[in-house]
Structures are given as structure tokens and as C-alpha cells.
Specification:
Radius of gyration: 23 Å
Largest sheet: 4 strands, mixed
CATH topology of one domain: Endonuclease, Chain A
CATH architecture of one domain: 3-Layer(aba) Sandwich
Strand content: 5-15%
Oligomer: single chain
Number of strands: 6
Number of helices: 14
Distance between the termini: 74 Å
Amino acid sequence: MGIFSKKEDNNKKEKNKKKEEGEEAEKLFEDGSRLMKLKQYEAAIKEFKNSLKLNSENFNVLYNIGLCYFNLEEHKEAIDYFDHVIKLKEENELKSSAYYYKGISYLKKDKNEKKNEKTILKALDCFNNGLEANPKDVEGLYMKGCMENELKGIKEATESFDKVLELDPKFENYYECELFAQIKEEKGPVKEESKELKVDKKVKEYKTKVGLKVNKMSELIIANFLFDNDLKFQYKPLATWSKDNFEPLFFLPKFDVYLEHFEEEDENMKKKVEVYRNYNKSIIFTTPKDEEDLLNVLKVKLKDYVSDIVKKRSLIGK
């Protein structure tokens, strides 16, 4: 075999090796993505990191690892991976989203302390950078306004909130900012759309304080209540203990308790409650009659779990 033949053979082997590594990296990414959808975040991270060993600059993998750490409330690690995405990715929605979650991570990282000006400025910088990548990111614009309001930049916050309501007049005040509520009220009720338009409209999604997207206002209120009271939760977790295609709404892993909200008190509600009882699972639930005062109902129904967290915080001096 001549010198050129050996070089050609080596080049061919190298190409085949890279192809195989690429295919393996893609398979690991798909496996990690599936585990992520099932909310098995720690297992997903392992698959994603194995994929990175074969392709260290895959921004989709880096972004998903950041999201997994975010959902596990390991915010320092989440910030590190979102930084990797930001360095690699061009200006687009994914980069904007990485900035958004990085900003929320700063706020959540200090959630057990009074947020200082330095933390708020870091978060604001993230939301501003995210908007440069995607100027139509209404959630980033809303959080930008909330941070400006916290820093007493009322004029800047008002301008941001005006833009939010121009883009989405029905935008929900999930950060519970008083200024935003006042501006929204000042603008008056939003004109209802015709039934024909509503049929084609995409299902509304609400973003909770932790960045999680939920489908209903009741779910938003519950998720934010759990977050505010430091009750770690999973949203629509996989019920591995059930033989049927069963999907709980919320799960509090620390207490092994499930939390449901039923839109109607009907036969479906009775059947779902029965499933929990048949498998000896603890369930707390709310119904339509609770919706007028859902926050106070949650305070009553979850008071033992909230008290437990407060008691343990006092024991460690927090």
C-alpha cells in the first residue's frame, strides 16, 4: 500500500469515527430529552453530559442541561450552563430564553434572603440582553419592568409595562407587581374576541415565578403559592406507581403528597381521587368553589406542610 493510500484510509477511518460519534451524541441527546419531558432531570443530565463528551459545543444540549438544573433548583449550575449557551449561540429566541432563565436563576438563588440591589441589577442585565436577542420576548420585557420597579425606576418600568400590554393585553401579572396591576387596570378591560377567533387561538400558557409554564390560572396560583412558601414541587410528574395512563397535577416530594385542582366536581373527579386512594397515595385537592379565594384555601389545606418548613428554618437559623 502506498503513502497516499494510507492517508486516504486514515481519512476515511477518521470520517467514519466522527460520523459514529455524531450519531451516538444525537442518540444520547434524544434519550436525555425524553427523560427531561418525564421530569427525570438528574437522569437526563447524565445523558446530556455523555452527549457533550462527543460534542462539547452543542448549544441545545447545554441549554437543556441548564433547564434541568433550573428545575432541580440548583441555580449556580444552571447559570453556568446558560452562560455556555449565551457564548455559543447567535442572536435568537434560544439565546434570549437562556438570558431569561439566567435572570430568574439569580432571583431564585437569593430567594431565602432579601434581594439586594446587586442581585436585581444582575437579573435586569440578563433581561435587557435577552431583549436584544429577541425584542418581542414579552416575558423578558415584563421581568425587565419588574426589576426596574424594584430599583425605583418608575418611568422606565412604566414604559416596559406599556410595551408588554401592547404585545399582550391579557398578560398575567405572575410576579405580582403592584405597578403593573395599576397600569393594566388603567387601560381597562380587554375586548373579548369572537368565538370564531378563539377556536383558532393557541392555548394560553402562564409562566410561574420559577419559569415553569402552566395551562390554567388556577395552576399558576398554586405553583406560585408553593414557590413562595418554599414547598418544592413537581408539575405533572410521571406516576410510575400507576398501571394506567395517570397524570397527577402537582407532587410535593418532601412530603410524598399529591395536590390536585379540579375544574368540575363530577364523575371524573371522583374517579381520579379513587385512583390515589387505591394506591394509598396522599392527596389534597381544591375544587371550583375554592377558586374565588384559592390562596386562602391553600393556606388552610397546606398549613401543616408550610409550618413544617418554617419550623425547620428556625432550627437552622434562617
